[in-house]
Amino acid sequence: MSDRPANGSANTEAPLADIDAATKRLMAALDALENSVERRREADRDENELASRIQALGADRSRLADELDGSLVKTRKLERANREIAERLDAAIGTIRAVLESGETR
């Protein structure tokens, strides 16, 4: 009146099949975990590389801003010198004209 089969090998075949199925699921889960870890490592490397590039771009931006500021200062100095030279030339031309006009009237 037992629900167990009389043959003892049937009892061991079912648990072995369950163990094999569980082992396959475990191996698949471990493979999936390994793939996830590798993708995460790649993402971290990409993120670190991106951070390095952003830092380099920031340094370049600062350097370019400094160069631009220096160029603006030089430009302003040149414009100021140009104005002064133009004023001196105008004064010299005026003086020369005055001399020429006074020489013509004599």
What does this structure look like?
This protein starts with 7 loop residues before the first helix and ends with a helix. The protein is mainly α and 106 residues long. The chain has one helix spanning 8-104. The model has no long low-confidence stretch (mean pLDDT 90).
Task: Using brief descriptors, characterize the structure shown.
single chain; 106 residues; 1 helix; 92% helix; rod-shaped
- Rg value: 45 Å
Query: Main β-sheet: number of strands, strand sense, barrel status?
Result: none
**Sequence stretches where pLDDT stays below 50 over 5 or more residues:** none
Terminal residue distance? 154 Å
Any idea what the shape is? rod-shaped
**Beta strands, count:** 0
Q: Can you count the helices? A: 1
* Mean pLDDT over the full residue set: 90
Helix content class: over 70%
Order of helices and strands: H
> Which class of secondary structure composition applies to the elements?
mainly alpha
What's the topology here?
Layout: H1 8-104
Structure summarized in a few sentences:
The protein is mainly alpha-helical. It has one helix at residues 8-104. The relative contact order is 0.03.
